[in-house]
Model the fold of this input.
Amino acid sequence: MLSIDVSHAASFLPLPYEEALRPRLARAAQWLQNGGGKGDDFIGWVKLPRDHDREEYARILAAAKKIQSDSKALVVIGIGGSYLGARGVIECLCSPNYNLRKKSTPNIYFIGNGLSSDALADVMELLGDDDFSVNVISKSGTTTEPAVAFRFFREKLERKYGKAGAAARIYATTDRSRGALKALADAEGYETFTVPDDVGGRYSVLTAVGLLPIAVAGIDLDELMHGAQELMDRCAVNDFTNPAWQYAAIRSELYHRGKKIELLACFEPAFRFMAEWWKQLYGESEGKDNLGLFPASVDFTADLHSMGQYIQQGERHLLETVVRFAPGKRSQSVPHDALNGDGLNFLAGRTMDYINRQAMDGTLLAHVEGGVPNIILNLGENNARTMGQLIYFFEYACGLSGYLLGVNPFDQPGVEAYKKNMFALLGKPGYEELGRELRSRLEH
Done:
């Protein structure tokens, strides 16, 4: 079960902070549970682990089985919250080398999350002549990156299987009743799954947005949702026994005392894309009105040999949150070397998990001594249940944090700025005047 240790961060605060924050946390929790706060039309995720649509959940499981039976690959087309959560869970629970491993489940390729021609061509080439299916994920169906990618893969499917055969291999996760993708899916006969109206993209990993690709990878959805429900119940407790209260409170206090960057660290390389999901969750939720911790991530111990110097002795505006898993099932022990040329025989017989744990503890002590507060999130074994717990914990704490900061945790108005300029430079109808202005500025 997830637990939190803030003792290595609270020591950086000169005065007790819990009682001062209690009324504000209670109000933020009330807004999350019952509405009344900014953006409260997007709090459907709060009770989702218990109240999700059972009929759609059954269809997700059935679709995953069909894809596993008729496809060697699934192409997941989406950007931001439409792919980061699913990719994070799959890589963390299966392997960052998932597509290279021998397995009974299909390869899963994520595309439509950028505009690189080479990245698109790579996935096309990796598919080759294999049977494949597509899961296109977009609330509107008009977001440029996934919409463009979908054109390519829809065309490839239709050439390979014909229009009817392609339609049976396209799964659209989109709005319940409106939008370009929903209209196309209805016209062509694609099976559709819903992006709930009251769940924003970065909070959607436990909806069909994340669940279909995760199920195709063979991950136990029941356990994932069970873990999320366990944390849902714990986060509904409105006091400091709630780990989300502790996390939101200590982040808030450290931020107001000059810690402006939060590093999410893990000593497992498989966690990389969970950290990418976390960065979007907190960056889009808090980064507005010239406020918010900047979310960054590091992979330890690798990044101790690149970023470690800065973390230890650079500007003291950092705090660090470290995710710790229990030892894995595939234990590896260091072999004995008769020559001992590297001087490491003192580690012979020690497990890699033991060595990794000492590296964690040594790093924590060094960073705290160097002026970097550390928050520790302890998890059990890295499995679907603990992953569900971690996802819900981060989501709930993010909602609390946004409200403590005084922003709307569920909108992202700044995201539209680049889109407007991109559309103008691409010549989208209606943006002609802005396009001329921007091109003139670029020329000068």
Observations:
- The two ends are 58 Å apart (CA to CA).
- Residues 319 and 372 are 5 Å apart (CA to CA).
